[in-house]
Specification:
It is built from one helix and twelve strands; from the N terminus they run αββββββββββββ. It has 141 residues and is α+β, with helices and mostly antiparallel strands.
């Protein structure tokens, strides 16, 4: 094989491999779970309890907020709301298995918001919740 043909084939392989890796990386950036989009009013978010008839976890996407909130229904019927922002580098977290993962530096958190893998050292921010007229109210302040 002559040099020109070798270089051309090598470059084509590198471009194809790079494109494949890039697509895999981009696919991991998004969440496979649909997010419930809602408004923030008076520093509160209202989420219908009916979202939890088939699942015990829901991603909440508040309008005007950069980070999603993970809302989990506990076995006792209460709800836990976690801000899905990495406490190490302020990166959006994605649900992963039984917790959340930061794609930036690899920090991971369990479903309660505790750090399971660094470099993050602080747990996720928890918001208080209450139920009013079949609505889950997440208090943001």
């Amino acid at each position: 094989m002559d040099r020109r043909k070798f270089v051309k084939q090598s470059c084509s392989l590198c471009v194809a491999a790079g494109a494949g890796m890039l697509m895999g990386s981009l696919a991991s950036c998004g969440s496979v779970l649909p997010a419930y989009k809602t408004q923030v009013a008076d520093n509160k978010i209202s989420v219908p309890e009916t979202l939890f008839t088939a699942t015990d976890f829901q991603l909440i996407q508040p309008k005007g907020m950069y980070y999603n909130i993970g809302l989990k229904k506990e076995k006792d019927g209460t709800y836990t709301a976690l801000l899905l922002r990495c406490t190490h580098a302020d990166n959006q977290l994605t649900p992963a298995g039984n917790g959340f993962k930061c794609t930036l530096h690899g920090s991971s958190f369990d479903n309660e918001g505790h750090v399971t893998n660094g470099p993050a050292q602080r747990p996720l921010k928890k918001y208080p919740t209450q139920i009013e007229s079949n609505q889950i109210i997440i208090q943001l302040s």
